[in-house]
């Protein structure tokens, strides 16, 4: 029986992706549109994983922006798209609940579990919790 020469490769919308579960985490990385090129890149990733126990990630040159900075930019954008009463509620919710918890956190470090912890600590109605998520 021949080995599957396309193991860990998945094709989506014309692009081949590397996909592997390692150390309980899903690793998925876009590779190439060419199957031959994708196989070579996949082999390189697997060699790197054998040597180092992980794959090299492209780390940003500068630290991730803080959540509060991104929130300010977001408010400027949505202010032109929604009613003033909705914007007022968004600002209240952001200032009352979200910014005290996430305001000084780099946005790249916030994950799903952090959001779940935040939501579980809220003492308000489910309706308000849903609005906070929005």
Following the backbone from N to C, one meets helices and strands in this order, namely EEEHHHHH
- Counting copies of identical and different chains, the oligomeric state is single chain
Q: Structural class given helices, strands, pairing?
A: alpha+beta
Tally of contiguous helical segments: 5
Number of strands: 3
Overall number of domains: 2
**How would a crystallographer describe the biggest sheet?**
3 strands, antiparallel
Strand order of the largest sheet: 1-2-3
Low-pLDDT segments: none
Estimate the mean pLDDT confidence. 83
Overall 3D form: elongated
Strand proportion: 5-15%
Q: Tell me the span between the first and last alpha carbons.
A: 52 Å
Helical content class: 40-55%
Task: Please sum up the structure shown.
The chain is an alpha+beta fold and 134 residues long. The chain has helices spanning 35-52, 67-78, 84-102, 112-120, 126-133; strands at 9-12, 15-22, 25-32.
